[in-house]
Amino acid sequence: MAEVSWICKRTVVSTKPVEAGKFCPLSVLDRIMEHNHVRVVLYYRCPKERKAGESTRMLRESLAELLSAYPIVTGRLLKTAEGHWMIKCNDAGVRMVEARAKGSVDKWLQNFDREKELNLVHWEPMFHKLYFWSTFYVQLTEFEEGGLAVGLSCGHLLSDPICVTIFIKAWADMTLNGKMVTPPLFHRLPRRGQCNETTNPQPFPELINYYKSTLEKPVPVVQAKQTTIKLAFGDEMVRSCIAMSHAPGSPDEPSPTPFQALAGLFWVGISKIKGLRNGLISMSICLDMRKVLGLDKGFFGNCMVYNQVPGDGIEEYELSKAANAIREVVDTMDAEGIMNLIEWMEGKADQFSCLMNGYDLICVNLEHVDSYSAIFEENFKPIHASYYIEPTVGEGMILVLPSPPGEGSFSRVVMITLPEDEAINLLEDKLIQQFSPTILMMADKKHTTANSDP
Predict the structure, then answer these.
(1) Is this structure's pTM higher than 0.90?
(2) CA within 20 to 30 Å of 81's CA: 160, 200, 351, 399, which one?
């Protein structure tokens, strides 16, 4: 018997019918992500006396209630006359997989890897008959000896990781309290004058040039097998990394943020294991722009923007220069620059066919996702969370995530996806080992050069 086995696959529809003839256009920041998808898994402990199937039934019923507020999630993809994607909001529903797993959730988390974890979050590539293809999939996996995994996957075309987390949090609120704390908002991206641009806008060609070069590249073919490792950095570890990342002799320079310091650390480490010595590997960062654009917390849609960080002239152990280069690029990504990018992209008549994470090393800032507040039952909070943005076919991907509450405001979890041999070598990097991260997930449990969880 497999460790994870399906019980059934069904369609969950909303309890209230969707308004007839309702459509949701997708923005340029949505359409640019057409070839990517997102997977999220949250793990829970459950009451030991619970009968098999009881948790699944409860969550299935609350999901049907929630979907009444999410017509874009239950709808199906269509194309406009111009060839752009849009959503026909209807009652087609969300596909749900109900599954069982051996052992307990705690035993699972002591010995799992990327391949095992992805068995907890079902995904199907886009089918050629779009009317039958579900853009969102939910998987509920009950562990035989106690525990639950909630998996959600979707096309990145409709939702970024922030929105997926908002959806799961709203589902949890509906299950726990019968109502949503933050209802979703489906509206267009802001226009000129709706966010904090300067009165005399100046062009910022670097960001536009980066997207232009990306659009011109063909979608790459997956080659090497990828694996994912997950490392936990405690509060003191991250503070030490920030201190080391602060440029010596520059007291007036602001200290790097936890994201900037950790991104710099892994940028340097991955460049080294890939054999680079004169400069660092080409890296792009991906940041959530909701706050920059003044969008409401409940905004549902893609609002993550990529930008390249120059690595020329940074040597293999120059962590402070790497973190500073990241900080400088982050500082340039303001409302004016993002609005320039959106307007430029809206002026393009062709269909986007690129893969945003297809060539560079990608580092995504997800440290503010609110996954640990998704509480479906009183006193049963998430104990672990994983995020994937797929496919990863370029140089690799780094996701910087929050740690569970109570571990310190600077603590972070980092998920790194690389070719298998490079992932193992990364764990042996002396600079990374210096901060003593705890291994939460790796491809080969025999390698324990860092501190493994018991």
Answers:
(1) yes
(2) 160
